[in-house]
Design goal:
The protein has two helices and five strands. It has 92 residues and is mainly β. It has a single domain, classed as Beta Complex (Metal Binding Protein, Guanine Nucleotide Exchange Factor, Chain A). The chain has a five-stranded antiparallel beta sheet, with no helix packed on it.
């Protein structure tokens, strides 16, 4: 799914994230094992962040949703998300 939507994961500890907008404008969906919580905007539908089951103390923020994200020097690590359970040890 992330490949199709071009979601660029930026894993950040929950303690380092502050939501500045209105949380009531977000909705969440869960699939498969219903552990991860994927939040999206009720207005535009963009999936801006989620609570990954692989990192329960972090948020995965879609870096492409950050203002001027191209100005940041983000190091991208390739990861096989389609088979993440077999590959999660490579990023934890």
């Amino acid at each position: 799914m992330c490949e199709k939507t071009a979601y660029l994961h930026l894993i950040i500890p929950k303690t380092d994230v502050k939501l500045l907008g209105d949380f009531d404008k977000l909705n969440n969906y869960q699939f498969n094992k219903k552990i991860a919580k994927h939040y999206f905007c009720k207005v535009c539908g963009i999936k801006s962040f989620y609570q990954p089951r692989s990192h329960p103390d972090c948020w995965s923020i879609n870096a492409r949703c950050l203002d001027d994200f191209l100005k940041y020097k983000i190091k991208v690590k390739n990861f096989d998300g389609k088979n993440w359970e077999q590959n999660i040890h490579k990023i934890t």
